[in-house]
Design goal:
Number of helices: 7
Shape: globular
Oligomer: single chain
Strand content: 15-25%
Number of domains: 1
């Protein structure tokens, strides 16, 4: 009679199991940053492609209309009252971005927050959103949720709009930027060259800002903009807990791609990209923007709306020739300002 031979299977000891787990953990720790870098690289590429689409749409708009779009259309009906068309550059480019259905649904006779237009206002347009920004869900405004944007148009350095008050400082002087209220800038106006001028840059959705500050107290004419290295708190005391502002600190910047206000669909070159100016009354201090008087008032409008992104150390910028440039946070403030003007006559080094 044959005897059965028992085979024994040797199990892991506790020490061997712990060593195996440790090795796996080390491998994951080494692999995870590489995966994250690869994902961010893909997001950066998508972000650049979005900006290229905007550049192509802008060029096609210009070819069709023979002018660049205004940031908003305002009319003075007297008595300190304005008719605010409101509709942004983003909205005007819709038919050139395969969004004709959305554009055709707009009733330009009414504001974007009118019930007639809420279907469009609430749209989140993928081409307006950077995939690296985690805060891009529609924002809950009083009229309902609204689609956000991560791309702002160049609306000035510090001076954004001269306003409609003839008694104001140097009433009606043209800003130095490609886009402004009631504008009809043409490509031939880019004396500095299309390839040397920034027309759009990245911004963050749900950006915090102050507005309605009765102007900005220490810089209030088109030629008294601050130096790029100045102390922001000395330039504008409004940065400190909103001194003199008629609004609380808001977190709704760049949350209405349909709205032509500078703090919604624009940026300015007042400060270099990703420069952090903290709200001193909050802990931790929020990075904030500021607008003295909104364009829906008689003006004039002065703003510091900084270009920002979630890409480490850089923002993407769209140039007038349709190319997209990666701009480092370390760019010299004077070069950044120079790249933001259309006819400043500055010599702009490579940036």
């Amino acid at each position: 009679m044959k005897s059965r031979q028992r085979t024994t299977v040797q199990a892991f000891t506790l020490i061997e199991l712990l060593v195996s787990i440790a090795i796996i953990a080390v491998l994951i720790a080494l692999l995870l940053p590489a995966v994250q870098r690869a994902r961010e690289a893909a997001r950066r590429t998508q972000c650049r492609n979005n900006m290229k689409q905007l550049g192509l749409a802008l060029n096609n708009y210009s070819d069709t209309v023979q002018a660049l779009p205004p940031t908003a259309v305002l009319g003075d009906i007297g008595g300190g009252r304005l008719v605010y068309g409101g509709w942004s550059i983003h909205a005007r480019l819709l038919p050139f971005m395969d969004q004709s259905a959305g554009f055709n649904a707009v009733n330009f006779n009414f504001a974007y927050d009118n019930p007639t237009n809420l279907t469009v206002s609430q749209m989140n347009v993928e081409s307006f959103i950077c995939p690296s920004d985690p805060n891009t869900t529609p924002y809950p405004h009083s009229f309902g949720p609204a689609g956000v944007t991560n791309y702002g148009w160049n609306m000035g350095d510090w001076y954004v709009w001269g306003g409609m008050n003839p008694a104001g400082p140097r009433f009606g002087e043209r800003p130095r930027s490609p886009f402004f209220v009631n504008s009809s800038t043409c490509e031939r106006d880019f004396i500095d060259g299309l390839s040397n001028t920034i027309v759009a840059a990245e911004v963050l959705a749900r950006q915090r800002y102050y507005r309605d500050c009765s102007g900005l107290s220490s810089r209030f004419t088109p030629t008294t903009f601050p130096g790029t290295g100045d102390d922001p708190y000395a330039v504008a005391p409004e940065y400190i807990a909103g001194a003199g502002c008629n609004s609380t600190l808001r977190d709704s910047g760049h949350t209405e791609w349909v709205d032509g206000h500078v703090h919604q669909t624009g940026f300015t070159t007042a400060w270099t990209p990703n420069r952090r100016i903290e709200h001193r009354a909050s802990a931790p201090g929020f990075d904030i923007d500021i607008t003295g008087i909104r364009e829906t008032n008689l003006g004039p409008t002065f703003s510091a709306i900084t270009a920002r992104s979630f890409h480490t150390g850089i923002v993407h910028a769209l140039l007038g020739d349709g190319s997209v440039r990666t701009v480092a946070d370390s760019i010299d403030g004077r070069a950044w300002r120079a790249a933001g003007t259309i006819a400043g006559g500055e010599t702009v080094d490579e940036f």
